Amino acid sequence: MGRVTDQPSRLMLLTTVRSYRMEAFRAAADRLGIAVVTGLDLPPELADQWPEALPLSFAAPDEAAAGIAAYAAGHPLAAILSVDDSGSLVAAAASRALGLPHNDPAAAVAARDKFVMRRLLREGGVATPWFERFTTADDPAVVAARAPYPCVVKPLNLNGSRGVIRADSPAELIAAVGRLTRLIAPDGPPRPYLIEAFIPGFEVALEGLLDDGQLRVLALFDKPDPLDGPFFEETIYVTPSRLPGATQTAIAATTAAAARALGLCAGPVHAELRVNADGAWLVEVAGRSIGGLCSQVLRFGIDASLEELILRQAVGLPLGDTGRRDRAAGVMMIPIPQAGLLRAVEGVEEAAAVPLIDGVEITARLHYPLTPLPEGDSYLGFIFARGETPGEVEAALRQAHGRLRFAIDPLLTVL
Q1: What pLDDT is attached to residue 6?
Q2: From CA 402, how far away is CA 405, in angstroms rounded?
Q3: pLDDT in tens, 299-349
Q4: Closest listed residue to residue 408, CA positions, set 343, 364, 334, 336
Q5: No. of H helices and E strands in the chain?
Q6: Contact criterion met (CB below 8 Å) for 179 and 193
Q7: I need a labelling partner for 188 at 20 to 30 A (CA). Which of 26, 65, 216, 250 fits?
Q8: Are strands 165-167 and 369-370 parallel, antiparallel or unpaired?
Q9: Beta-bridge partners for 381
Q10: Close Cβ partners of 117 (under 8 Å, ≥ 6 residues apart)
Q11: At what angle do helices 245-262 and 114-123 cross, to 10 degrees?
Q12: Cβ–Cβ contacts within 10 Å for residue 281, how many?
């Protein structure tokens, strides 16, 4: 990374029309005086609806990279970043074509494909559970006979615990495979999926930056709610971690080793780990920052956002002070309690009035259907809190959540 420039920079941010993350990156770019152009995953027939964006097909990374290179010929770019997982392969391919610092395309693939990730982690000496790749064409009974229990079935490239299901017996695994098949291959050709041994323990999330392969830890989040299945819906993140220093050091070391094993060397990294008596185990590591609106709880130096640090590094500006000034901060991703149509949200003002609560944002739209995990891929919204201690922040988040009320009409089933 390491280049420094005094000239105004232009960078391209790759995203989708559904991303939560774009607004925060745009605000950070404005604050830094960096010009932004958006590369949007769009079919050509919809390009007129977003005239300011460069339409791209993220499903064809090489073709999209060629489109970015053609654009850059007349509008030089200092960096290309994907604000989430959706455009990471395109960002890597385009950056390589233009000679810009970024992760190798093979590393971007490894951070997106859970089977490739597990294989490279094992080859790199990172603690790895039993795992095996199957396809939806395989006989579920044969698959169930091969798997250890408890185990977890996972799609290879969905995010946010979507499609991830724990099974404690062959019967449960057969049912889980059927449910996953309906999600990822309802009518089309067979699709691959992963089964791995369930990793016991508690879960944490690490946010960091990689620079020439060196990991700088920016935040370590505790996840105080147990994530033991059968589904793995995340709720509360609180930082700083309350874990002993030695445990935090082991978590950082495992994350750095995992990044090396995958070939990730530049830019943001978001890692999920489980910790037990045998140490820290990498669940997944992604070459992007934390998802949703969760980054709002992180402030660095005088008042820099996580996105500002990411953009500074990308265009070669000094990072400045990366220390956190808040004593404690946290976010709750509000879970979807049931499938149906969201009709009303009450108690938002009551929740926002809870001491230490910094904000409540409901992102689900009224009169639109809600789908919980494992099929769903979103939350009702986010609650943010800041305080003196992680325990106080966690308690405030739970109290605020308890004051929210959601009216959801069940969807009618057509026989």
Answers
A1: 45
A2: 8
A3: 999 889 999 999 999 999 999 899 987 789 999 999 999 999 999 999 999
A4: 343
A5: 11, 21
A6: no
A7: 65
A8: unpaired
A9: 334, 362
A10: 110, 111, 262, 284, 285
A11: 110
A12: 22
What span, in angstroms and rounded, lies between the C-alpha atoms of 327 and 309? 20
Structure tokens at 324: 């956190």
Judge whether 323 and 301 are in contact, CB under 8 Å.
yes
51 residue type, one letter: P
Residues of the chain with pLDDT under 50: 1-8, 413-415
Asked if residues 345 and 371 have their Cβ atoms less than 8 Å apart, the reply is no
pLDDT given at position 4: 41
pLDDT attached to residue 412: 59
Output the pTM of the full model.
0.93
Contact 275, 223 (CB under 8 A): no
The pLDDT tens digits of the residues spanning 373-390 come to 999 988 999 999 999 999
The C-alpha atoms of residue 387 and residue 331 are separated, in whole angstroms, by 12
Helix (H) or strand (E) holding 146: helix 140-146
pLDDT at residue number 314: 94
End-to-end Cα spacing for the chain: 58
Q: Is 127 exposed, middle or buried (0-12, 13-18, 19+ CB in 10 A)?
A: middle
Give residue 141's pLDDT: 97
DSSP 263: T
Q: How many CB atoms lie within 10 A of CB 389?
A: 13
What's the gap between Cα 300 and its chain centre?
A: 20
Which phi and psi angles does 292 have, rounded to 5°? Answer: 60, -140
Phi, then psi, of 100 in degrees rounded to 5: -95, 150
Q: What is the pLDDT of residue 44?
A: 78
Q: In whole angstroms, what is the distance from residue 164 CA to residue 160 CA?
A: 9
Q: Which residues pair with 15 in a beta bridge?
A: 40
Three-state secondary structure along 42-105? CCHHHHHHCCCCEEECCCCHHHHHHHHHHHHHHCCCCEEEECCHHHHHHHHHHHHHHCCCCCCH
* Rounded Cα–Cα distance for residues 414 and 313 (Å): 52
